Every structure is written in C-alpha cells, then in structure tokens.
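Hello again, I could really use a second opinion on something today. I've been staring at a protein lately and its backbone has me curious. Can you walk me through what the tokens say about the fold? Take your time with it, there's no hurry, and the full record follows here:
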Amino acid sequence: MALNAYWEEIGGLTFLPGTNRASDRFARASFLIHAVPKQADPRFISAVPGQSFANQAALSVLGVMRSVGVPLGITTPNQPNISSSLWRSVADQKNKVYFFDSSTSPNAFWVPLADLDLKEGASVKKLVLEGGKVYSGNAAAQFEAAPAFTFLPGKP
C-alpha cells in the first residue's frame, strides 16, 4: 500500500513504472482502473456491444488487464513468479456475463449466463479450447456437448 501511495503521489500522467514486476504492474493497474470512464463514454459507446455501459465497463477492465499483463512467452531468469499472462477474465456479477480474453486468440468473447441452460438435468456442454478454436462476441451458442466432469473420490 505504501508503494501504491507513492505512485499515486507521482501521478500516472507524469510517469508510471514499466517493468513486468508485480509491484510495477500493480501501480499501473491502480492508476488505469481509476482513470477509466465511470459512465457511458459518448466517444465510444456506439462501438460497444449492446451500447451498454456495463459492457463498456467490463471491456475497460479487460483493457487495463491487458496493459499490465506479461506478454506471451516472456520469462525472467531466476524469477519464476513472473510468467506470461495466459488469459484474463472479467465477471459482470450484476448482469451475469463473463468476459474472456486469451493470449493465444485475437479476440475477446463473452458468455451471458442467461443464454445457457443451467437447469437441473440440462445436458453438459463446454467450449472447445484446443486446436486453435477462436471465439468472438457472444459465445453462448457455441458450447458443444461434452461428458460430465468426474470428481475423484474424497478421502476422510
């Protein structure tokens, strides 16, 4: 927190730390998350899916996460705690929409839970993630039938 207070005093428009160390990434994220618009931005809202502020906000958070992530393939010798950001996800818990962004895909996609059949007895489905499959936009209709996950037996 002291480190964050230091960078708040410097101000993100003056200078932000730029390494891939967690403390630097935290300082950048802290500045950026406080700088994103807190209401629908008339300059961009027409390009936002559904022209909704909820989507604008979730996508702004994904943008912050992208800007502080470690690029795919980056490693730092003798620092195993610094590794590539493989994916990012944002949960809009009010509207029950989950947003996903993979470092191996050119697009973000989302899944509105209201578009899924989550009733008891509904068929088991999944999004296929292997083989370079790319999703974009609302991916709820692209779930495919799958076997149910088998849990290992518990041990007392």
User: Anything to note?
Assistant: The helical segments are 2-10, 22-35, 53-68.
